[in-house]
Amino acid sequence: MLSKSQAQAFFLGGTLVTFLIFIGLTIYSMMPSNDQTNHENITAEVIQGKHLWETNNCMGCHSIMGEGGYYAPELTKVVERKGEPVIKAILMSPVPWAPNGRKMVAYEMSEEDAEAMIEYFKWIGELDLNGFDHMVSPLAKDRMEKMKNK
Amino acid sequence: MKYKSQKVAYWFFALCMLLFSLQIVYGFIMGFARIGFDVLHEFAPFNTARAVHTNLLVLWLLSGFMGAAYYIIPEEAQRELVSVKLAYVQLISLALVGVAAITGYHFNIWEGRKFLEIPRELDYLVVINVLLFLGIIITTLYKGKRRTTTAMVLVMGLLFAALLYLPGMIWFDSQVTDSFFRWWVVHLWVEGVWELIMGGILAFLLIKLTGVDREVIEKWLYVIVGLTFLSGILGTGHHYYYIGVNKIWIIVGGIFSALEPLAFLAMALFAVYMYRKGEKNHPNKIALFWTIGASIVSFIGAGLLGFAHTLPQTNIYTHGTLVTAMHGHYAFWGAYAMIVLAIISYSMPNMTGRKRFNNTAGHLAFWLSNIGMLGMVTAMGVAGVVQVYLERKLKMDFMVVQDEVVVHFAVMLVCATMFATGIGIYIYEFIKFGRPTDEAMEKNELGVNNDEPVKPQLVS
């Protein structure tokens, strides 16, 4: 029968081993040779876009890379789906954008900020999401295929 | 209650009740917005309501964990807390930081990172607050007459929870790296160190409620928390499948996530087995219901539903849908909300001296809230499956699909009303207990003198 000291050793040993593997895998994931994000394409505008994304808590309604509030559309590949003019108009609108009656906060962004947001979305749209980008954005995929066929 | 300083726990539990009721109010705001009645949009748009709802959850659970520690540690260490005054300072500062954060969310002051919306300036105050809490608890334990496994596991969980808050405070230019380390906080809290806290509280309650020998309970506690870390640490990988990091996480996360239910299964079997073997017929049946209930519901909510949702082959469809919300609600309810309600139900008669052990209102609160939550989760689950099918398989537009699932949210609101009624009765019962009193120290929960401990039952 298992003794208390053996149970303690199982807890401490198991924790230590899995933690070390976890740290090892984290380092492996962060190696430049394993980058799936085009890290070199992160410009000052992309960083500004991310800052705006966070300070306005866009994730509280929308999702990006599948993470967010599930109340408003997923924004991975949104530029391909909606186009830059529509996105800019929504972000700069002084009245709430309300598709199907569901209201978005009117952020009244400046043109510069709206462009930074678009750059951020473009960078996100180029990520290799291990297949999720095609799953979550069928419209973008279909649209691209139609354009290719033309 | 054996030590005067344990009374501090009451005020942490009172804060829990206040924050929990507010959390439910914001949940209703979100629910009504989803069925088209976003009437409070100007005051609390959905992103505000959501941030308040989730942050209040974290805050009231933390307050519950802290209250539990202030109640449990003196009994385990067999001495008074080192400073009751500092514990009150810690309570008030915790409440103030929470109020400041939640008020700020209504004025667009936040970080906008899911579950970690609290602004950076307040992050530092949280760190100071938690350090103060840990200082009081660890010093009490260090100066105590004994250091039990139950106390050590509980404190270890609280200490790791504090340390793991730090990676969430680092700024990253890349959204992918940001998400990667945000999960170090969120996942390793809820599917790692918080389970240690849950295990510690569960072990304490089982020792008290079943009378089974401490050595036996604590031996299995080690096995359970061992399984938790063995599966939970590498199980973090299930958050990394589709966020732009290496594919190796699909394999590692897939395997270890599949093992995560084992810890919850062990916890459920452990609680039920100890209850059946224990021969101490403890009169506090309501605490027993919440304790055993927590172990079973956490297995279903966190274990089984988590398993179904985090298989990579399933998750590519369910990632970023209402299926996540369904799993999240039942997991948090079973694993953490119920265990906090269990320790409150156990400690209140001991702190106040009022033996409201087995009354109808207490049982009604348990069943209404549990049936209500099960109904909510079922409604959200159906909405999630419909969303997955229409959006991910039939490629329908997000907003069109949202119209299709409105009916499920209407059902969810009905069930939420039942849930809120149950919690309302629980809070009413909490108030009816009254304030803690020193007179309650004279007798323990069985009505015998504290100097005459109940003889433990031996099982292997």
From TrEMBL, chain A:
<dbReference type="GO" id="GO:0009055">
    <property type="term" value="F:electron transfer activity"/>
</dbReference>
<keyword id="KW-1133">Transmembrane helix</keyword>
<dbReference type="InterPro" id="IPR036909">
    <property type="entry name" value="Cyt_c-like_dom_sf"/>
</dbReference>
<keyword id="KW-0349">Heme</keyword>
<dbReference type="InterPro" id="IPR009056">
    <property type="entry name" value="Cyt_c-like_dom"/>
</dbReference>
<feature type="domain" description="Cytochrome c">
    <location>
        <begin position="44"/>
        <end position="125"/>
    </location>
</feature>
<dbReference type="GO" id="GO:0020037">
    <property type="term" value="F:heme binding"/>
</dbReference>
<keyword id="KW-0408">Iron</keyword>
<keyword id="KW-0812">Transmembrane</keyword>
<protein>
    <submittedName>
        <fullName>Cytochrome c</fullName>
    </submittedName>
</protein>
<dbReference type="GO" id="GO:0046872">
    <property type="term" value="F:metal ion binding"/>
</dbReference>
<keyword id="KW-0479">Metal-binding</keyword>
<feature type="transmembrane region" description="Helical">
    <location>
        <begin position="9"/>
        <end position="31"/>
    </location>
</feature>
<dbReference type="Pfam" id="PF00034">
    <property type="entry name" value="Cytochrom_C"/>
</dbReference>
<keyword id="KW-0472">Membrane</keyword>
TrEMBL record, chain B:
<dbReference type="GO" id="GO:0015990">
    <property type="term" value="P:electron transport coupled proton transport"/>
</dbReference>
<feature type="transmembrane region" description="Helical">
    <location>
        <begin position="287"/>
        <end position="310"/>
    </location>
</feature>
<feature type="transmembrane region" description="Helical">
    <location>
        <begin position="330"/>
        <end position="349"/>
    </location>
</feature>
<keyword id="KW-0679">Respiratory chain</keyword>
<feature type="transmembrane region" description="Helical">
    <location>
        <begin position="57"/>
        <end position="74"/>
    </location>
</feature>
<feature type="transmembrane region" description="Helical">
    <location>
        <begin position="184"/>
        <end position="207"/>
    </location>
</feature>
<dbReference type="GO" id="GO:0016020">
    <property type="term" value="C:membrane"/>
</dbReference>
<keyword id="KW-0349">Heme</keyword>
<keyword id="KW-0812">Transmembrane</keyword>
<feature type="transmembrane region" description="Helical">
    <location>
        <begin position="149"/>
        <end position="172"/>
    </location>
</feature>
<comment type="similarity">
    <text>Belongs to the heme-copper respiratory oxidase family.</text>
</comment>
<feature type="transmembrane region" description="Helical">
    <location>
        <begin position="406"/>
        <end position="428"/>
    </location>
</feature>
<dbReference type="InterPro" id="IPR036927">
    <property type="entry name" value="Cyt_c_oxase-like_su1_sf"/>
</dbReference>
<keyword id="KW-0408">Iron</keyword>
<dbReference type="GO" id="GO:0004129">
    <property type="term" value="F:cytochrome-c oxidase activity"/>
</dbReference>
<feature type="transmembrane region" description="Helical">
    <location>
        <begin position="124"/>
        <end position="142"/>
    </location>
</feature>
<feature type="transmembrane region" description="Helical">
    <location>
        <begin position="219"/>
        <end position="242"/>
    </location>
</feature>
<feature type="transmembrane region" description="Helical">
    <location>
        <begin position="248"/>
        <end position="275"/>
    </location>
</feature>
<keyword id="KW-0479">Metal-binding</keyword>
<dbReference type="InterPro" id="IPR023616">
    <property type="entry name" value="Cyt_c_oxase-like_su1_dom"/>
</dbReference>
<dbReference type="InterPro" id="IPR000883">
    <property type="entry name" value="Cyt_C_Oxase_1"/>
</dbReference>
<keyword id="KW-0472">Membrane</keyword>
